[in-house]
Structures are given as structure tokens and as C-alpha cells.
Amino acid sequence: MIEKWIGLSKEEKERFILNFIKKLKEIDKEYNIFTQINDEVKFKENPPLILRYNNGKYEVNEEFIKGIAENMLYLLPVAVKDNICVKGLVATAGSLILKNYYPPFNATVIERLIKKGIFISGKTVMDEFGFGSFGVNTFKVAKNAIDKSRVAGGSSSGSAVYVKLTSFPSIAESTGGSISAPSCFNSVYGLTPTYGLVSRYGLIDYANSLDKIGVIASNIYDVAYLLSMIAGKDGKDSTCVGNRKDYVSNLNYFNEKNVREIKVAIPKEFFIGDEKILDKVKEAIEMLKKYVKVKEINFNYSKYALASYYIIATCEASTNLAKFSGLRYGEKGEVENKSFNEYFSEIRSKYFGEEAKRRILLGTFARSKGYRGKYYIKALKVRDLIVKEYKRIFSKFDFIITPTMPTLPPKLKEVKNMKPIDIYNIDKLTVPPNLAGVPMMNIPLDNFIGLHLISSYFEEEKLLQFSLFIDELWKSR
Amino acid sequence: MEVKIGLEVHCQLNTKSKLFCSCKNEIAEKANTNVCPICLGYPGSKPVVNKEAIKKAIIASIALNCKINETFAFSRKVYFYPDMSKNYQITQYEMPIAKEGFIDIGKKIRIRRIHIEEDPARIVHTGNIKSEKYILIDYNRSGIPLIEIVTEPDFCDVSEVKKFLRKLISLLTYLKVFDPKKNTIKADVNVSVNGGERVEIKNVTGIKNIEKAIAFEIIRQKRIVEMGKKVERETRKFDEDLSITYTLRKKEEEEDYGYIFDTDLPIFESLPFVNEVRKEMVLPEEKINFLIEKYKISKELAKSIVYSHLFDLFTYLSSKFSDYNLIARLLGNYLKKCLNYNKISLEESKVKREDLLTLLKLVKDKKLPERKLKEIMKFYPLKGNLSKFIKEERVNVDEAIDKVLKENEKVVEDYKKGKEEAINFLIGEVLKKVNYNANAKEIRKKIIRILNETK
Questions:
Q1: Chain A: closest CA distance from residue B350 (Å)
Q2: How far apart are the C-alpha atoms of B88 and B258, rounded to whole Å?
Q3: Which residues of B are less than 8 Å from A380 in CB distance?
């Protein structure tokens, strides 16, 4: 899409966007994609957004675009997951407690995008604070772009649906698989970068040691473009250590000759789930065997990854969500004749969804006196083992391939019959690499079915290159 | 009865900015003006550590003879309270910055650990705690850096605590880690009597209150034991108005803070900070001993000079002038008093080194009595412009005597009539005219001679 976009003139781009917003409203009604479409931007002192709604018409904000209209990405419409702060638009993070929250600052990734003239088309729906794999744990539930009766996947549900329906990219976020799952279920490309490559400043936290901002797009070039714009060191985020890089210019590096050196590991423990999915992924692996070295391996400790993840994630989440107590931002309540404890308890009980409450309770318990050593500290040690396991495998192999998800996206009406523990188990393939913080890409193979390509830390360039190779090979088979 | 006291002292650090954001660490006139999304705990904001705060914490740790840990990290202490912008405090739990130090107050008071943490916001009461309708919160204080110094229960009485706190404060003030003009000191105090249960008194502000709280608590506990009862393990608070401690919560209601690591912040290595700090840091004891040994001045004056940051000035003047004791009095006594009284530092004053050398020479040449030097040093450091204070170097005493005798004929008459005291008045007038740059005895002799001649 970006390649096409670059070819349009400034006027063509502007005309397109004004129509595009109308189209977005229609598909939003049908698929429940947005918490807010960027169509009613009121002019403020520092307008971060390009379009202005003035007297019933949309118009381009001339003062703001001076100097960036010439930019080739001017007005490219990128949707942003609603837990990433965009000044001027709402940031609900999928939660009723932030239903009317307008952040006073932009996330770093947003600053980097709007500097290039990117148009933030809207904020996309998500599971509350990231708590979910289907997109159902929130006040507006997205529908799968391929089959409206199915879940869109989560927690970046709206983002993946947007990409599938418009072919334009979206900035999303993953903690335990929230980019890979919806990308897989909507058959689009989703990149979860190495933890620490992209700044988290301005991301409403789920779990600080696990959250990563990434990209969902309709093709690998778009992923590479967007990653090049958002990745790299940020002084505002002490954990953001990666370097800025151009991921686009060398994207088609691999060819049938030089790819021969590549070694791919296939961990047995990850080949579980729906037969249809396993067949498709194995078919892709067979195809690759003609060009690269493929070897089956054992992935030690993989069965402990899910538990370790849920303990660490909920422990951190329970502290991150403590700040929502009806003061300074978010929903507030009646203050008369109440103690502080009564006041905030009421608000949190009223506005947090069931899954949010469940995870706060779990996380608070796992780090409480008498249990902290057994759960929280133990989970950290297990994570360390899994990190070491990935390092061990990547010392011998270039990539790991697994299916992205073990099941097809369930029907929306089936979900309420599923137990929380069964839903958590759906994450078992995406959680291990997310827990370790290694980068991964969902490559769509068929409707609802994706292949998960995983590489070592900070090897996004190689990951994107090999993804392109696999993708082109698969499409031309 | 045996008394055991332990302290957890919280000292605000004297840095330019807060601990995790660039908001100013200073006293503001209006509430909620030194604030930003980070110290207000806005969703999406992230802490970034203030390196100056780390360095000051390390300086304090070295001065308190602690071992600096190789690595340190931050943790979240979770509890819900209106003054908490995130409902967790970023502090240090498993990996503090330093451990195992001491302060010597005649006996060694051991320090278990020192860690860095952020201050919560300030609660402003709008009335009596029991009857006020609402409280106000000022986030200017939210995020100010603190060090918490935890001692072993090595204190046996209030006077030891007093000595400890005074020494701690003067040391930290000297090292510019703490500024008594803008930083506060608080403590949680643990007291037990006769090997009984430990009672914690939380959040006592200022040295005087800490001493009072301990004194009251010791008496309270002793009385309980004397009556044959047992002291309960609990948390208490100190009421500043009534000077008593009262129950806050019982043992069963102890807080469970659910500590986790704060993973918005990395694990830090202390070595780079320590190296930077050691280059700049010389402890006051070293400088004091140096002055005593090399210049043979008194310990009291040496301490005074070092703690008033006049050490460099002293060594400069001593390289140009050989009466070290005079210099010591000039700086450690006269100048220090003026700076203290007016609450300014040497840099803020108008003192010039060359002026001080001039004064020293005048005293040496007996052209300026030391008494007059002391007078001058009350005002000169504020005003500068030394020449106004000493007028002319060569003072014509004879001219002054002539003038005074002419202007005070009646007094001269009185003296001639036999009133001896009259001459004192005349001497005083002459001294005033010559700006005290003369010897009273000599003036007396001269006046007597002149008056005798004219009899």
C-alpha cells in the first residue's frame, strides 16, 4: 500500500483521505473497529492531527502541513491501537474507566509518525488493557474481517480488522501475543519486535517487562516502512535501547542461492492443536526444505512458559492498574460522605471489566506476603530459563518456525461458554517468544491460519527478509 | 530497664530535579506548578532516573562508611493512598544502593542499609483531621528524591539519637546532599523496652519531634512494664501538638506491599557512578585533620572552617600570610558567624580574597586592632567595598586629637578641674574619628601631654 501511496500527488492524497473517513465510518458500523475515528478534530494550539472539521466540512490544516506535505508518506492513514496515546484523540485502552480520557501528550511512536506527515485515521478497539486473546473483553467487540461471526482475535483486534479491510497499516501492541493472534485470525502480517526496540513512552501499560509496540500491515514492505519510522532509542523510555535502522532498502535480500545457509528449528512441543492448522504449516515447512536446512528440536521448559507469563504479567498489571482510582484522570464518582477507600473501590468495581478484575486479583495474590517467593520470584526464574533456552537454540539456528495459533478463531457466541483457563491456553504458542522478548512475525498462509517466524534479539532485518522470502515462495507455489 | 531504638531516617536530596522526571526540586509558591505527566502518574508516562540523585545517594553512602552494592534496582511498593500519584511508590527493596555502614557518636551506630525512593505528594488539610470535609493534594512534592537510612537498633537513649541525627545532618549538609533550607528530614522510629515487643512510630517530621516522640514512647512503654503488663506490637503516630504517640494500627492490620521490580527501569551498575563521585569527594574529617596537622590550629576552628566551606579560602590565605591562627579566627569565627547569621554562603557574599589579605596585614602591622576586625566582619561580607570600612590606612592621630579637644572644650575643662573620667570620653571621640585605627593607651598619653602643656 505504501508503495502505491508514494506515487500519488499531494492533492490526490488529500482527496482520498476525505473520502476515506466516510468509508471508515461505514465499515466501523459493520465490524466495530474504532473507539474513535479521526473526523472531528477541533483546532487546538498544537494540533497534532492534520485534518480539521470546520463548519460541517473536513479541511486540511494548512499551517500544520507546511514542510511535511512534500513528504512521500504525507497523509498515509495509519490506525493506532487505543492503548497508545495520541493527543487530541481518546485513549480508552479498551476500558470503561478511561472511556472519556484524552491524553495530554503523544506517545513517542506517534510523534515519530506525525513528523513524517502520517495521518492517524483512528483509535482501534482492543481487549481491556490488553487482557484477552479474542477481542471480546471490552465495551465494543470487533468482528473478524473474513468471517463476521468469528472473533477478531486480541488484544489488537480493531487494528488487524482495519488492516484486512483497508489494506492500510496499523500500529499495535503485544504482551503475550496480541499482535500475532489477531494478525493470524485476520490473515494479515503482524510484527512483534524485540522487547526494547520500540519506545513504550505513551503506551498505557499492561506489563512493563513484556509490552512491545509493533506493526500490523497488509504486506511485508509496509511493515518494514513503519518499523523503520518507529524503532530506535528514546530518552523517555529507559528500556528502549535499539538503534534506528532502515529495514526497507535491503528487504529482498534473500534469493534461492544465498538462502541455503539458513538453518530453521522446528520445536516439536509447539506442533499441537487443530489438524487443519498443523497441515498447512507443515506444508509450508516442506516447501522450505527445498531451500533451507530444517531440523526438529526439543524446546525445554516450554510447558512452564504460560504459567510464568501469566504470573509475571498479572503481577505487573495489578500494579499498573492501581493508578486508576478516580483522581486526576479517568472516570470519577460522587465524593460526598465517603472515605478515600470507599471512593476508589466503588469506581474500580464499577468500571473495570471482569477480566481486568480477575487479573488484578491474580496478580495481587501472586506477589503478596507468603506467596511472592512461590509465584512471582519463581516465575522470574522460569522466565530466565526460557530466555536461556532461546539463546541456546539461536546459537545454532537462524530461525524458529511454529504455527501462530493452535485453533481457528472461535465463533463469537461460543466464547462465553469457554472457561478462562481454556482461553489462556490459546496463548500457549505465542507466549513463549513474547515472554523471552524475541521478535516474531505472523505470515498468513490461509484464512485464519498463520505461520509464526521467530528470530533472535534485534534481528528484525533478517526476520523481515526471510519473511518476504517465505511469503513470496508461498504465494507463487 | 534496657531500651532499644532503631531509626529509618528519610532525607530529601538536594538535587535540581525530581527523581524520575525533570520537574524542579524546589519550594514553589503555588501548589501543583512543578508537575508533569510522570510525577502526576498519568497512564503511559515512564520514569527516567535522575543521575544526580544517584550520585548524591552514593556520596551519602560513602560518607556513612557503607558498602556500595555492585548493582541496584528499583521496586514498586503498592498501597492506595490519596498522596500516591500511581498508588505505588518507586523505591528499592531487594537491591538497594548500599549496606552495612556506621556513624561514630562515641560508639558506633550501625547502618543496615541505604536506599533511594521517591516522595509522595503533600496532603494539605483544610481543618481538623476528624472534622474536615476534604483534603487538598499538592503534587509539587510528588517524585522528590529521598534516601532512606535504616539503622540497627543500636541506640540506648534519646541523647544518642540526638547526637546521631545532628552528626548525620551536618555531614549530609556539608556534602551538599541535603539542604536544610529546602529539604526535610523525617523518620520512622522503632522502640522497645526490656526486650519486649517493638513499637513503630511512623512518619515523625524534624529532629525535635523525633526526640520528643522517642522520649514519650520510652516512658509509655516503661509504665506498661512497671504495671506488670505487656507492650503490644503495633504501629503508632506522633501527635505534634500534644507530644504523645497514639495507635495507628495493630499488628494484624500490617500492610502487605506486594513488592515487584519496576521494569520500566533497568538494573544499574554502581561502578560508573562511584568512579565519578570519588573523583570529586573528600570527606570533611580528612580536611579537618589536615588543617590541624599542617597549620596547628584548634580542632574547633578547623571544624568551623571546613563545615562552612571555607577550606579553600583558608589554604589560599595561608599561602600568603603566616599567622595561621589569626586566619583561622578570621574565617572560622568572624566570617562564619556573619555567613550563618545572614544565611548566605561564601559565594553569595561580597567577600574578596585580596580584601581579607589587606585586613590581615593591617592587624599584623598593628594598624587595626582585632576587636575592630571583628566589627568589620559583621558587615563587610554583606556590603563589600572594604575601603569604606577602613578609610585611610595612615591615620593622623594628632590631627584627630586636636579636633576633639577643640570640639569638646567643656569636657576638657572638666578634666582640668579634676574629673578623671572626662578623659575617657575624649579618648573615645578620638578613636571614633580615627576609625579605631589607633591605640587607646597612646591616645591617652598624647592627650594628657597636650593638656598638661596647656595647663
A1: 41
A2: 10
A3: 261
| Interval A146-171: pLDDT, tens | 999 999 999 999 999 999 999 999 99
Residue A130 carries which DSSP code?
Answer: G
Query: Tens digits of per-residue pLDDT, A199-256?
Result: 999 999 999 999 999 999 999 999 999 999 999 999 999 999 988 899 998 999 999 9
Contacts of B35 (CB under 8 A, 6+ apart): B23, B139, B140, B142
Instruction: Work out the number of other CB atoms within 10 angstroms of the CB of residue A68.
Output: 16
User: Residue B384: in which H helix or E strand, if any?
Assistant: none
Cis peptide before A155 (omega within 30 of 0): yes
The residue among B226, B176, B206, B156 whose CA lies nearest residue B6 is B156
Partner-chain contact A103 B43, CB within 8 Å: yes
B454 Cα distance to chain centroid = 61
Cβ atoms within 10 Å of B334's Cβ, excluding its own:
20
Interface of A with B in 121-180 (CB under 8 A): none
Asked if the C-beta of B385 comes within 8 angstroms of chain A's C-beta atoms, the answer is no
- The answer to whether the CB atoms of A101 and B78 lie below 8 A apart is no
Given a cut of 50, the residues of chain B with pLDDT beneath it are: 393
- Cβ distance of A235 and B48 shorter than 8 Å: yes
| Closest residue of chain A to B22, computed from CA coordinates | A236
Active site residues of A: 81, 155, 178
Query: What's the CA dihedral at B27, B33, B36, B39 to 10 degrees?
Result: 50
A258-279 pLDDT tens trace: 999 999 999 999 999 999 999 9
> Amino acid identity of A260?
R
Measured between CB atoms, does B47 come within 8 Å of chain A?
A: yes
Is some CB atom of chain A closer than 8 A to the CB atom of B258? yes
- Shortest distance between the Cα of A393 and any Cα of chain B, in A, equals 26
Counting as low any pLDDT under 70, the low residues of chain A are 40-70
| A319 touches B: beta carbon within 8 Å | yes
The residues in B 127-186 lying below 8 A from A, measured between CB atoms, are 134
Handedness of CA B343, B346, B347, B353 (dihedral sign): positive
Residue B45 touches chain A, beta carbons under 8 Å:
yes
Start-to-end CA span in chain A (Å) = 23
Phi–psi pair at A216, nearest 5 degrees: -120, 130
Q: Which residues contact B405 (CB under 8 A, 6 or more apart)?
A: B412, B426, B447, B450, B451
Note the pTM of the prediction, 2 decimals.
0.85
Burial class (CB in 10 A: 0-12, 13-18, 19+), A323: buried
Q: How many CA atoms lie within 13 A of B319 on its CB side?
A: 7
The answer to whether the beta carbons of residues A109 and A199 sit under 8 Å apart is: yes
Residue A170 forms beta bridges with which residues? Answer: A79, A216
A385 touches chain B (CB under 8 A): no
Asked if B137 contacts B123 with a C-beta cutoff of 8 angstroms, the reply is yes
